[in-house]
Design a protein that fits this description.
about 130 residues, five-stranded mixed sheet, 3 helices, 5 strands, disordered C terminus, SnoaL-like domain-containing protein, NTF2-like_dom_sf
């Protein structure tokens, strides 16, 4: 196992425990965090989101994989408040010399699940803004 792979394994272990703040020293000063290529965010926003998601996200497969020992990725599922609808996606993490440079979350939802969500919304008495 390479040093970058060990960094990713440690990140994963701390994420699963909800202890991202514990490893803040592993993140580059110019660390960037993106959700669906949206607004550029930093470590604080990343740590807050990971703390909230720690008990909910289901990582598919055993670990993150890499072809070049720099870019690591895996797929995940995140249950939503709507029954039987999950957000699915993948994570990309970039690591250089054991320092985490970037973390990108890419969410997408299967069309069948989107249709179920639309039906729930159509049949709901609640108003959504």
């Amino acid at each position: 196992m390479t040093n970058n792979s060990k960094t990713i394994a440690y990140l994963d272990a701390c994420f699963r425990k909800g202890d991202i703040e514990k490893i803040s020293y592993l993140f580059a000063p110019d660390f960037v965090f993106y959700v669906n290529a949206g607004e550029k965010q930093g470590f604080e926003e990343f740590a807050n989101l990971m703390k909230q998601a720690a008990g909910q996200i289901i990582i598919k497969g055993d670990k993150m994989v890499s072809q070049d020992d720099i870019h690591f990725s895996t797929e995940f599922e995140l249950p939503t408040e709507v029954e039987n609808v999950k957000r699915i996606g993948f994570v990309e993490v970039q690591v250089h010399n054991c320092i985490i440079k970037s973390f990108n979350l890419h969410f997408h939802t299967q069309e069948v699940e989107v249709e179920k969500f639309r039906q729930v919304m159509k049949n709901s008495n609640a108003a959504y803004i």
